[in-house]
Amino acid sequence: MELTRKRSFTDFDRPAHDFRREFKGSVLEKKFAKKQSNKQNVLRLVLDWVLSRGAQQLQKKKQQQSTSTSPFDSIPNEVLYEILNFVNDHSSILSCRAVNRRFHALVDRGYHSDKMPLQLSRLIISGLPRGRGAEMRWIAYETQQTKTISIAQAAIRKPQNFQFNFKRFVIHRLILKDINLTDDFICFLRLQLSSADLSQLSQLTLSKVDFLNANSLTLHCLLAVVGKNLENFEVHDCYNMRPDSITDAHLIQLNAARIRRISIDGVKLCRMGNSLRIGDESLQHFASLKSFPAILLDRCIVTTNTVCDYTQEWFDSVDEGEKRLRSQVVTVKRCVHVKGSAFEAECRKRGLSCRNRRGSGSLTLYNVHEENTHRVFTVALAAALMQENQENDEKPVEILTNKETIPTK
């Protein structure tokens, strides 16, 4: 008896039975097709209803806009702003918000400058890449508002007046950052600031400003507008500067009765070895008016005797109460005419006790005392590189900042 093995696999040589041929045209196919068509019809109906509903609502909005359009609606916001300026009653202006949404937005945003001025904590003006213009950004901490606008270079060359905006501004701090300082830009800025309220302006900061296309009169024109109100004048990390970019004449423009701090640091001149023309005249001017702001001078031409005179005048002029409340610091960095050893010797000649102490790194502070008193006047000196090579006993110093350090040998 022979045993045959059962074939577990189908014979692929034979043509397989195709059930799809039997399904086509059968009752099952017709029944399933009806169910599928019903589902598709329902989805199409829902989609058509949604689209038609949206089209109807859009058409209604267009009709409402077309019917409500009037010549009054085409009036620009600036004209409405001028109209609101004729209203003298503050309560009446607030009642104008009930007219429509547009009036409500105008009143809330403070377009009526004379009635509801906008307190700008900071007005920051920075340059756009490739000299394409400038960017203005104003920040109001009180109302938690901020806004940025870009100004084309053509609008700066032929100054356009943004009086409708600046007329309602009360500026507290003005910051110029990463911008090319030119006469055209200063004329444009003066035109805008002429409409603003500068009575509260307390700070002017120039940070990373390019002085290549500026001359001595460029900064002079700006300080002529804002200098009388400043309490803090800062020039940090500016480059392409010349000796006449900032001089004694510029610092004398500041109001000695209000100025509290002058900081000129991180100066980068076009030529190595040059210094800014800020010398003894500035310190003598403030000392003669009994004004002693905290001063930081970098790469200037002040002398050792003038720094000692400024210190002596502070001890002789400032009353006892102010000396206890306000610490006084004068910093002279990389000025070739000021030497630490000469400063100590000059203080001893004047009967002042001078003690130096080293801080972290190369920091050295000179604490100047009067005899038998606890009043202290702090002077920080930083030697220039040429001075360090000539005198080995000179101590390189850096003021209380991390902007730039002088390497020691």
Automatic annotation (TrEMBL):
SUPFAM superfamilies (alphabetical): F-box domain
Domain F-box, chain residue ranges per copy: 69-120
InterPro entries reported for this sequence: F-box-like_dom_sf, F-box_dom
SMART domains, A to Z: FBOX (SM00256)
Pfam families: F-box-like
CDD domains in the record: F-box_SF
PROSITE patterns linked: FBOX (PS50181)
UniProt-recorded name of the protein: F-box domain-containing protein
